[in-house]
Amino acid sequence: MSFNPYIPMNKPHWLIPEKPYETYDEYLKQYGGRSPVLKAREMAPEAVLDEVLKSGLRGRGGAGFPTARKWATVKSHWCPTRYVVCNAAEGEPGTFKDRFLIRKNPYATLEGMLIACHVVGAKEMFIPAKASFKKELERLRRAKEELAAKGLLDGLKLTIVPGPEEYLFGEERALLQVIEGCPPMPREMHYPPFEKGLFSELESPNPALVSNAESHARVPAIIHHGADSFKALGSKDTPGLIIVTVSGDVRRPGVFEMESGRPLREIFEMAGGAKPGRTLKAMYSGVTSPVLPASKFDTPADFGSLAKAGSGLGSCGFIVLDDAASVPRVMQGMIRFLYVESCSQCLACKTGLRQASIALDDLCEGRPGTADPLDRALAGVIGAPQTNRCFLPQEAVNLLPGSVEAFRAEFDDPARTVNAPRYLVPKIKDYDEDKHEFVLDRRVLDKQPDWTYAEPAEAAAR
Ligand SMILES: Cc1cc2nc3c(=O)[nH]c(=O)nc-3n(C[C@H](O)[C@H](O)[C@H](O)COP(=O)(O)O)c2cc1C
Ligand code: SF4
């Protein structure tokens, strides 16, 4: 199946151009040279909000929360100081969509933030992204200068914040901590950003609107073309377009933009399908959602359909496994990833995930234990989410019990455990678009729960 993953030039709402936009003027050509920010500023904030509401836009950061509802909450907050934040931390394994977007088209995200400022009445914006995202940070800085030169930032302040490598950096309350100069440790659950934002004081909670880079980027075209044209694309549940990352056991891994609602099977075909002689077995959406077995690959890629099928859309980072993959080894890698990346603030998370990770190591390395390692692993993850400040331990509950249920026999099979190689969780460092290859961060194997790195692991990982 041949497939062009890029914008057919000037097709409304598509964000990824065939060739990266090198200048702001080049980007603006799709709008006849006039920025949608100017159009939005001519409209009452309520009218802009109404358009975003009508579009049905759902956040692309993982949870699919309606974007306009978040805007409305911040807009109606009693505190006059508000902030707009773009989550560009992109730490979800198997996901490269935000970096791909920023490399090719940083302008849509920046314009989306400016429109959000107009609606919620914010004067200051932040874009936190990992310090290791050098290309993206550079691209954002250049784009910011261009927008400033056009006067679009007059009276506003935009700060790009290079941040740490940790998975938790992308968690929205940890993200705010990093902006404030602290480590990426989530704040208490009862302080959502839209209630307590940045640099808050008792009398001034300064709510922050935190949205994913793609969520912000979808807004300018909605304002220019109107909500109806956005809603006409994609599925009813998740209107518009999505940017998906397909990694793992496919022939042409990559990043693709498409209308939501396409069956997963078709999406995996775009990524070249199974390798020669192999068949696809299962899919994980990052490390956040339950496994989706291949028998359900006809499920449409949208939030509602995937939830109904027992999995989730997440941030559209589809990690595909074929019949040669070892689910126990995948679980060992993913649960270890969550354990190592958790932050020790909540005892239940740290002890539960630790127990699960050690038990899965015991199972996969054939170490004798006092009790059945699988029982210990399941008890560890199921008991983990108690008084948890963030969703991270819930991800472990999503992953393990469902994987054990769907692939129980593999957990008793030495060929899939002790005799299978370690699994490298696909934390994507870079993407070679021409070769359709992702560069993975192999240091994942050596990262320790105190966020230091051990000497490189000897075991070869899959
Ligand atoms: C452990 C963890 C890591 C996360 N990492 C990211 C991330 O890298 N990027 C992101 O946009 N959202 C991430 N999120 C989700 C954010 O907390 C938040 O829901 C999102 O930025 C909201 O944006 P949206 O409404 O546009 O989807 C993460 C959540 C958790 C629990
Ligand atoms: S639930 Fe886990 S990762 Fe989240 S704040 Fe608590 S200890 Fe840290």
Task: Tell me what the structure shows.
- The longest helix has 19 residues, at 347-365.
- Residues 1-6 have low confidence and may be disordered.
- This protein folds into three domains: 24-231, NADH-ubiquinone oxidoreductase 51kDa subunit (Rossmann fold, 3-Layer(aba) Sandwich); 241-322, Ubiquitin-like (UB roll), CATH 3.10.20.600; 327-446, NADH-ubiquinone oxidoreductase 51kDa subunit, iron-sulphur binding domain (de novo design (two linked rop proteins)), CATH 1.20.1440.
- The two termini are 28 Å apart.
- With 462 residues, the protein is α/β, with parallel strands linked by helices.
- The chain contains 17 helices and eleven strands.
- The structure holds flavin mononucleotide and iron/sulfur cluster (SF4).
- Flavin mononucleotide (FMN) binds next to strand 4.
- Kindly state the number of beta strands: 11
Which CATH top level class of the largest domain fits? Alpha Beta
The ligands found in this model are: flavin mononucleotide, iron/sulfur cluster
Beta-strand content bin? 5-15%
Query: End-to-end distance, in Å?
Result: 28 Å
Q: What is the domain tally?
A: 3
Shape: globular
Classify the helix fraction into a percent range.
25-40%
Biggest sheet details: 5 strands, mixed
The average pLDDT score comes to: 95
User: Regions with pLDDT < 50 over 5+ consecutive residues?
Assistant: 1-6
Structural class: alpha/beta
